[in-house]
Amino acid sequence: MRSVEGKWQRKWKEAGVFEPKVEEGRVKYFLTVPYPYTNGPLHIGHGRTYTIGDIIARFKRLTGHNVLFPMAFHITGTPIIAISERIAKKDAKTLDMYRSYISYYVEDREKIEEILESFKDPLRLATFFAEKVQADFEALGYSIDWRRKFHTGEPIYNAFVTWQYERLRQLDVVGKGEHIVTYCLLHKQPEGEDDIQDADVNPVEVLEYTAIKFKLEGSDISLLASTLRPETLLGATNMWVNPEADYAIVEFKGEKLLVSKKAWVKLTHQYVEPDMRVVGELKGAELVGKTVETPLGQKLLILPASFVDPDNATGIVYSEPSDAPYDYVALVELKANPRVLEPYGINPRVVETINPVKIIDVPGVSDHHAKVVVEKYGITSQLDEKLEEATREVYKQQFYSGKLIVDDPDFKGLSVPEAREKMKVKLISEGKALVFYELNRKAFCRGGGEIIVAKIKDQWFIDYGTPWWKDRTRKLINEKLEIIPSKYKKAFQDVLEWVEKRPCARKRGLGTKLPWEPEWIIESLSDSTIYMAFYTIVHKIREYNIPPEKLTPELFNYVFLGEGSAVEVSEKTGIPVKVVDEMRNEFNYWYPVDHRHTGIPHISNHLTFYLFHHTAIFPEDKWPRIISLNETVIREGAKMSKSKGNVIPLRDIAKIYSADLFRFYIASAASLESVLDWREKEIELVLDGLYRFTNIMMQSRNVNGELPSDYYGRWFASKFRRIISDAKKSMEALEIRDYVQTTFYQVMNLLEQYRDLVGEDYLKAVKYVSKDWLIMLNPVIPHLTEELNELLGGSEFLSTSEWPRSDKYPEDEESEILVDSLFSLVEDVRKILEVLKKPASRAVFIVAPEWKREALRLYREKKGIKTIIEELKSKYNLRGRELEIVEVVQMFNKNPSEEVFKTSSKKEYEVLEYSVKFLEKKTGLKIEILWEDEARARGIPRSEKAQPLKPAIYVD
Ligand SMILES: [Zn+2]
């Protein structure tokens, strides 16, 4: 397989078979998969998404569509620059990693070092991997139109994005102002999902805490304790600090606030107060044993707790052990180990008196909610990881069904969300709390910098909250867009509702300058939203050598939006009218994007922005039509990661496995919505299947293809016809796994059965269907099918042929049912022989008479049993056999089947007669076929048990 793959890739390229042209009147299909980010080699996880994209493209081509499947490369943002800088600084880890990346492609040691040296230039790094990714894609047989490739650092692309952003600014959806962002402490700039390690699989969210001031008794200092649930202040029992942690006293708007040292750094990024400064430092241990006063006037003791993370929010919390599992466990632990309190001089009896106070009622939970859940999970330590899950469970249940049962009339009877909001507003407006932002998890940028939440004063952002814009995008998602698998539609709808302002530019990175403030660079999630439009014209820009400075907004306004005229644009830019119109035609023909395929983690960012930017800039008829998604890839049950060393680079695939084996495995191992677990054992099985397939095909090479018109031939043809139509339906619904099942395994199985029926003549059937079969398999295993087609005498590319016509294969459902039932009959005899446990030599198959079918037919017409008996008795002379009529109906009732009504008794008998040889071969018995009446006449026992399609079997 490996040896023929390169040959076909060359042939396709030479013939330009994947370079479509505008063909007015012909149905087009514009399919895209996101351009890869080229800061390193891709792996099989990426390979799954791109392979599925290619399979769809190839299928659409076969079903008559003029398919455009382009590809480009994304280099925008800071990650590539960061790597270049680390290489320039001779960072050992980075040098090692990139040395190994380069060695995937280059063997010569000196050459590797030379290339590594060149990576000090970020553009060299990006284009090196872009080239390699292209080679990897070609080696996998992707049917991409490479004439249209570009990278996002090219001036022609910058011109396009410049146009896009001027448009957005005119629409008044871009603004500048105070903005909450994820911010890198190392690089001192906002950094988004694209820059944060693992953010695609483990999203980073900004959480809004309420940081409440607790006055330290006998001082002017307030402890700032943060919570996501300020309503629980009503049930606070004590404070927790981490005795080991470092705390700072911060002067803030004339007050002294005590927070962890880590939190101080975050505060300075969230509150720009010129005179905010640290006026003192202390260890947590120094606070333990002291008392604070809550904003509600209550006195609380400060106690030690190791679960308190100085690196999370303010590093101080108050305890509400009735509803917070962490607090509950910490309190229980403290009571069990009173010695912990000794160094602080706290009397253990004081701690004994601290007990949870129930303030929230949840239906079905009579005890303290935290206690119930902690006990359910069997948690005994405040460092138990299960506490996260327990906390989520309590919070979720209380959020939806909790009610406050406190005396305070302001809060009594409120739902948890109502009470939360009310308490927050009350505390903040009274100056007793402030907002503190924190991430849902610890996060670092790809360059190793710690990520925190910061408020930026003058940040450029896109306002996805703009009402008219949201309305338009909602219309697209709810009314127009098809999402496959459809269960993800809800995720799109959710993101649409919560997405608000998003930073769109940074002061650093590769990419396109913000047109009106060129010290800003448009960041990577913001410059990759409508680039599919650029694919439609980029090859024309290259063909006519149009320089970037001629790619003016007027040109794009005309090409993409039909504003102005070709003549005006031509006068202004100097580009000939003919060329301007060609570009306009290309766009008009290819757009909108019919189908975008990608991975599920892109829903909440990239795909959402893709939809938004389209509804902002383009008219409705140019909006995206289908989005499909696939899950990720793991390997032998484990997540792939660099640290585990279990990542398989795409580069190795074609060399180690062959492209077609990979493609087949990817397509067949999991449905789109399931995680694909890459298992070597299963790959071997797939390979075996492909060998058998190839052998069958090769054996059929010198036989004449024909399908006889006997029962078996008609059965085969009708089955194959069904396979053709089922396969098409599967792929149209993107049930690609079913598609492989149908086109490969079902056909293999059908041929095996046919071989059982007719012996080696089955090869004639293989030959008869070979072309159609190869065509159906071509989207999945394009190289092998092209090669076999050539070996079997085909002279044209399969990749550009037409989907098989099912009407070449006559439909004959009756033959299908009757021949299928032969195989189940053989199974029945086998079971009988097993039970008998004695040697047998002869079997009689007894066929039910036509009146039994008629009885069932009348029954299906809802005739009463009396009427049925009346009608049949005289017609078939069944006087005295009324009970038999009743029995036939009863047996049918136990196991009803429509197939009975699609067959006649006469044909049933004929097919059995015709198949005596087959039945004898399969059962090893002498076979006789009798009508029920004949068998009864011969006194064969239980002959009357014959049912339509279920002959009575007598073994002797
Ligand atoms: Zn950073």
From TrEMBL:
Residues that bind ATP: 642
E.C. numbers: 6.1.1.4
GO cellular component terms listed in the entry, alphabetical order: cytoplasm
Source species, domain of life: Archaea
Compartments where located: Cytoplasm
Catalytic activity: tRNA(Leu) + L-leucine + ATP = L-leucyl-tRNA(Leu) + AMP + diphosphate
GO MF entries: aminoacyl-tRNA deacylase activity; ATP binding; leucine-tRNA ligase activity
Domain Methionyl/Valyl/Leucyl/Isoleucyl-tRNA synthetase anticodon-binding: 714-838
Domain Aminoacyl-tRNA synthetase class Ia: 7-515, 582-672
InterPro entries (alphabetical): aa-tRNA-synth_I_CS (IPR001412), aa-tRNA-synth_Ia (IPR002300), Leu-tRNA-lgase_arc (IPR020791), Leu-tRNA-synth_Ia_arc/euk (IPR004493), M/V/L/I-tRNA-synth_anticd-bd (IPR013155), Rossmann-like_a/b/a_fold (IPR014729), tRNAsynth_Ia_anticodon-bd (IPR009080), Val/Leu/Ile-tRNA-synth_edit (IPR009008)
Residue ranges of coiled coil: none
GO terms under biological process: leucyl-tRNA aminoacylation
Chain positions of motif 'HIGH' region: 36-46
UniProt cross-references to NCBIfam families, sorted A to Z: leuS_arch (TIGR00395), PRK12300.1 (NF008957)
HAMAP family on file: Leu_tRNA_synth_A
Family: Belongs to the class-I aminoacyl-tRNA synthetase family.
Protein name: Leucine--tRNA ligase
Organism: Thermosphaera chiliense
Gene label: leuS
